[in-house]
Amino acid sequence: MAIELAVAYNAVRQRLLERVIAETRETGHLTGCHQLSEAVLRALATVPRHLFVPAEQVDLAYADRPLPIGRGQTISQPFIVGLMTELLAPDAEAVVLEIGTGSGYQTAVLACLARRVYSIERIPELAETALQRLIQLGYGNIEVRNDDGGQGWEAHAPFDGIMVTAAAAEVPPALVQQLKPGGRLIIPVGDPHQSQDLRVIRKNERGVVETRSVLPVVFVPLVRDRG
Ligand code: SAH
Known about the structure:
Blueprint: H1 2-26, H2 28-31, H3 38-46, E1 67-70, E2 73-75, H4 78-88, E3 95-99, H5 105-113, E4 116-121, H6 124-136, E5 142-146, E6 159-164, H7 173-177, E7 179-189, E8 196-203, E9 209-217
Parallel strand pairs: 3-4, 3-6, 4-5, 6-7
Antiparallel strand pairs: 1-2, 7-8, 8-9
Helix pairs in contact: 1-4, 3-5
S-adenosyl-L-homocysteine (SAH) binds at residues 73-76, 99-100, 102-103, 105-106, 120-123, 126, 148-150, 165-166, 220, 222-224.
């Protein structure tokens, strides 16, 4: 039974991947990203999204859409997870920071690619559930902390890449500071009650910051508890 189910999930996950590939191609003229790399596709093909959603959402786990995960939060749409991961492009040596662990799904995708992933979630129950889930699934290269991520994670900085999976009214300066030269910050910026602008902020080797707008997106708000 368990094996049959695993095979069934592999088949629906493959169909989802085809949808994500098509959507990436269709939006390529806006995003500049026409296709996902083999490594990102492999990560999306590996992470069992049905284990990151609440039981009542399992039937929709492989639909290309965001889903509620409780506490008014959502697990991101797979196409957006693929796009943001591709824009971050962590290599096997990368140390990455994620703000907004949520379900831990994006954390797991990053953990397939990077050397180490640090993730911060402000809602204690979500942080705890995601951490337990990621440990159970065998992701050994992650650390999850319950806090306001707007200040970054100074102790592990600088980072090769930082990904924010909640809508920021403005780019938190601490996150830009904690980027390595050559590093990238992927962040939705704008009014949290409307759509936001997904941005790629790159710190070049001389420490100069360049920003590129990629796509209108809709995320839950990045809530500031500190500073
Ligand atoms: N990456 C997640 C998406 C979760 S939605 C996933 O794949 O499931 C965004 C998450 O950001 C929510 O869980 C929300 O609680 C969290 N969040 C909002 N503001 C935050 C902040 N200042 N610091 C850390 N997490 C924050």
